[in-house]
């Protein structure tokens, strides 16, 4: 590891060894914001080698609109500690990933003289995923409670309304039966809506499957729709392990995501169904050594900011003709497989990712 202004004594070598093996990105900046030290984790995070980082202002490693640059300036100007969570990194190097980080800046002093700041950057993705999973669990419980209450409060009166309409229909002349027919059809529609919220009534029937087989069926089904003008492409990882899932439930959940994407794209644009293997993931607080991820990516306008916090709530929709059932139903169905759904969205690119548990022991077929 190269370091500008290295300590004179080799007694700090063990400490330097520990710093260089930290998973936390560590950078020492002088009072002008110039990088004087960067450990290997910092090099990996910023996508730049130490030889390109050292001696350069920290801002040169970041994009012009990176909020981290402003934090560094503030910490140097005020000589105070700063902490910020879930900050977009926005590195300048194309080889680095634009991830979310937790940041801490601490002033450094030599005696009472300010000499710079220590910048610590932690990968926030795992924490954010854990928070999302916890929120999804709470949301699932809330959804189930609300739906059960809806089923009780709505279906019983609907049954009475429909029965009364049937009795009334027998006493009416032909011209009056048109209205009782409307009452019964609307009662049936509302009953089906509540049943959809409750989800499939049967128990899950898991089996080992290669997820590409049901995905191919789904893609063929969507492509066969004459109203769909969307270009649908597949990007499969052929080395995926099998997954233990209820095939019908998973395909229904992914179908909901695809249908939601098509409607958001107004039936034009490009939709990609992608599969990838994921190792060492934590889902709902449980460690999984292997998982399979199915992405549904579209180039539509993105999820409206006003809906992001409540996207998986029942009856929440941004479309006039939407029911707000598709996404909460998909989340419920995937949770039955011990999997999860997460998403990221910006104008022109929205990706819903389904994570399903997989095992090494089951060979791919």
In short:
With 365 residues, this protein is of the alpha+beta class. Helices cover 38% and strands 25% of the residues.
Explain how this protein is built.
- The chain has 365 residues and is of the alpha+beta class.
- Helix content is 38%, strand content 25%.
- It has helices at residues 13-20, 40-46, 50-53, 67-78, 125-171, 177-198, 212-223, 247-264, 326-335; strands at 25-30, 35-38, 82-88, 100-110, 113-123, 207-209, 231-235, 243-245, 270-283, 286-298, 340-346, 349-357.
- The strands form three sheets. It has a five-stranded antiparallel β-sheet with strand order 2-1-5-4-3.
- A hairpin with a 2-residue loop joins strand 11 (340-346) and strand 12.
- Helix 8 (247-264) packs antiparallel against helix 9 (326-335).
- The two termini are 46 Å apart.
- 25% of the residues are buried.
- Mean pLDDT is 83; it is low at 361-365.
